[in-house]
Amino acid sequence: MRPPLLEVEHLSMRFGGLLAVDDLSFAARAGEITAIIGPNGAGKTTVFNCLTGFYRPSIGRLTLHRGGRRHLLERLDGFRIARDAGVARTFQNIRLFAGMSVLENLLVAQHAPLMRASLYSIAGLLGLPGFRRAERAAVAKARDWLARIDLLARADDPAGSLPYGAQRRLEIARALCTGPALLCLDEPAAGLNARESAELNRLLLAIRAELGIGVLLIEHDMSVVMGISDQVVVLDYGRKIASGPPADVRRDPVVIKAYLGEEADEELPPDIARDLAGRG
Amino acid sequence: MAYFLQQLINGLTLGSIYGLIAIGYTMVYGIIGMINFAHGEIYMIGAFVALITFLVLGVVGVSYVPLALLVMLLATMLFTAAYGWTVERLAYRPLRHSFRLAPLISAIGMSIFLQNYVQLLQGARVKALPPIVHGGFTLMQSDGFSVEVSWLQIGILALTLALMAGFSLVISATPLGRAQRACEQDMTMAALLGIDVDRTISTAFVIGAALAAVAGLMVTLYYGVIDFFIGFLAGIKAFTAAVLGGIGSLPGAMLGGLLIGLIEAFWSGYFSVEYKDVAVFVILVLVLIFRPTGLLGRPEVEKV
Which of A55, A97, A102, A136 best probes binding to B when mutated, by most B CB atoms within 10 angstroms? Predict the structure, then answer.
């Protein structure tokens, strides 16, 4: 069996008296979509923030295996996590470079290889052929992604002028342009309508199938979680209360209780019962 | 008419110098939201490095003027850029995550330190440089007034244009410039895409210092006298230029520099030389009251 892509071991994150993440361990594999779910405030985004260097974990080890090397994420600087370990992420509230063009957003994501190719921009200024080739390749890659997410026609518009759903897709494409090993998506379906949400599912499944990278997904929309994830980790008050394939997790009484409270096992509100049981 | 033309040429020359310094203010402000009050001193150091290089060249025996100027230009840019890098590394980076005023206070301290450092090492007396670039031509003559353009003025304008064009190219079309713009908008996000933010900020200081160094060289050649205190006034005027153009906007800094130079020249030419600084700072006050975003600036967007 190949080693997992990401190993989270005994991760704890404490803010003063609050234990936001409590002794969390799980693994995510390449070529799989791992969903992290849980009620609001369960510590899901905190896990992402630890993975991407926003927070230094109080305790725990985060190991990413890439190209036969082990990267200990909790010890790396923010930009090295992206550049060397290959972790890319998107945000709950979209963070595109609103003033730059759509195409440039994707070029910024390819900064590290372009910088090497341009000898820190010196070759770029002189217009040397090596740099021009690299720049052309970067633009081609960006345009490929724009075609995939149906934004090719708006390549030169400022990213901030795109509609909401398109901004979400662009943010995912930008994360992918960094050439990541692990893609962390924080509520990518938030604010999308049913059609856009279905499109997103297709995009994520295509990413998994074609790129073979690991995807870590925080999501509230159960139709997305149940529909596309290979593994689900359920958090409640920072602790892992269940994990496994989606079919098992949604039948787990502990999970149902965490989502609905103590009295809820008497009678579920119909829409939630449907979400938990049906749509997968 | 002839008199007007003469003031226009003088103003553009002066404005080039302010514009080159103003770029450094606006770049640093754009990327880390801080006014680098030591930037005027960086320009002063540029002037001194130019002078020292000239003296060294004299000792070595280089007397071919174009070669001497080229060596002066390169040496000044290189050494002053090293100062810019060091100042950022020592005085600002350790305070990056401190409270907002800390780097500003550190900048003022750095400014005072650099003034005294040069005063101590080079002496407080005014240093004079014999004119290196001689000559010029008479552009036109009317009413007994002749419009003189010196080769030096042509050189200053041409070099400024070339540098500004090259600089715009760097910012708009190279990965380095893209990283600068990305960090300007969202530093955290830039880091998450693998951009080394600390290095990008250092680069902004290095580029700003190199451009200010050119301004220092130009002033040394143009006026022929420098002292350890020239950075203060020139720095504040260039800052005014950056604010007038819209701080954070690079074309704004260039435009603001030229306008401040022109205002100063015309005020000296038509009203009084004594009050030329007052005219410039009245502009600063008016801009801050009536158009705080400057001519080409965008309103501040609150960053999360």
Answer: A97
The last residue of a domain, from among A146, A163, A178: A178
DSSP state of A76: S
Q: Does A128 touch chain B (CB under 8 A)?
A: no
Inform me whether the C-beta atom of residue A167 falls under 8 Å from chain B C-beta atoms: no
Residue B182: closest C-alpha in chain A: A97
Is residue A191 domain-shared with residue A273, that is, in the same domain? yes
* Per-residue pLDDT reduced to its tens digit, B44-94: 999 999 999 999 998 998 888 889 999 999 999 999 999 999 999 999 999
Residues on B contacting A at a C-beta cutoff of 8 Å: 166, 169-170, 173-179, 181-182, 185-186, 188-197, 304
Distance of residue B167 Cα from the nearest chain A Cα, in angstroms: 10
| Mean pLDDT, residues B26-54 taken together | 93
B159-217 confidence digits (pLDDT tens): 999 999 999 988 888 888 899 999 999 888 999 998 999 999 999 999 999 999 999 99
CATH of residue A229's domain is 3.40.50.300
User: Do the Cβ atoms of B91 and B17 come closer than 8 Å?
Assistant: no
Domain that holds residue A59: 1-86+181-280
Domain boundary among A178, A194, A221: A178
The backbone torsions φ and ψ at residue B12, rounded to the nearest 5 degrees and listed phi first, read: -65, -40
pLDDT tens digits for range A149-161: 888 888 889 988 8
Structure tokens at A245: 């394939």
A20 touches chain B (CB under 8 A): no
Q: Which residues make Cβ contacts (< 8 Å) with residue B98, sequence separation at least 6?
A: none
Residue A245: half-sphere exposure toward Cβ, Cα within 13 Å: 3
Q: What is the 3-state secondary structure (H, E, C) of B237-267?
A: HHHHHHHHHCCCCHHHHHHHHHHHHHHHHHH
The structure's pTM equals 0.87
Query: CA angle at residue B260 from B258 to B263, to 5 degrees?
Result: 110
The answer to whether A73 contacts chain B (CB < 8 Å) is: no
Judge if A154 and A67 occupy the same domain: no
**A125 touching B (Cβ < 8 Å):** yes
Q: Where are the alpha helices (DSSP H) in B33-100?
A: 39-60, 65-87
CB contact under 8 A, B191 and A82: yes
3-class SS letters over A209-259: HHHCCEEEEECCCHHHHHHHCCEEEEEECCEEEEEECHHHHCCCHHHHHHH
Strands (E) in chain B, as ranges, are 127-128, 136-142, 145-150, 225-226
Contact A118 B174 (CB under 8 A): yes
| Strand pairing category for A18-28 and A6-15 | antiparallel
Cα separation, A116 vs A130, whole angstroms: 10
Closest CA to A68 of A116, A109, A30, A113: A30
When pLDDT is cut at 50, 70 and 90, the band that residue B16 belongs to is: very high
